Here is the input.
Amino acid sequence: MKLSYYSITEKAGRQINEDSVLIASSKKRNIFIVADGLGGHSNGQIASKICVETAKEIFLKRESCSLSNLIEEIFADTQKKILELVSEFNPSPPKTTAVILITEENRAIYAHVGDSRLYFFRNNNIHSHTLDHSVPQMLVNAGKIKPKDIRRHPDRNRLLSALGDEHTSPKYEISEILEILPNDAFLLCSDGFWEKILEKHMLKTLRSVIKNESNDPAKSWLDALSYRLTSQSGDHKSDNYSAISVIT
Here is the structure.
């Protein structure tokens, strides 16, 4: 199945961009990753870079590996490599979130750890999206706040899991393998992106792009969302933001 895809990554109001993105292809597969580095003092940049470099290496070498095992290997090797650096970077060890999408012909699988998200769109609606490994998401799960409150919650940056956490194994989640259909769409993004773009605007813009039959729908979609984000007034200290759009 032919895919249209596009990516952006910007430092925005920060001095350094600690996000990393990856798009890579083999004979039958494509991999897309957004990793949002954590740790301060630019250490997050190290962790997110390790994530995408490790993923690319494994992806290209392990083409016969099953999709779920491939993702598990990427997470395990990334975790191992980041933890090898922990002693060098105390008291701010490098960590990173990650959201991964792999496609193979008409199949796809995705996974995430932390609060970088994947949105899956089908039939002009949001089919599903990943749930953050964060304190606000835990409060949503407990029924104490509503999902819409996550964006403004004072603890929205407190993560319960990330690659590079030396105290607990990263509790990543992997989806079931799904069949992808024409006009299915995926949006992978860091919190610096989805916190500023409401789901209704993601969907409205996607519907417009599909209706207008753009020659490069993934770029048109992401360009429109990026314009919306950057045209918002105020916040000169805004976070790095990164996103990858994929449309079948």
Summary: The longest strand covers residues 29-38. The radius of gyration is 17 Å. The longest helix spans residues 43-61. Helices lie at 43-61, 67-83, 135-141, 191-194, 199-211, 217-230.
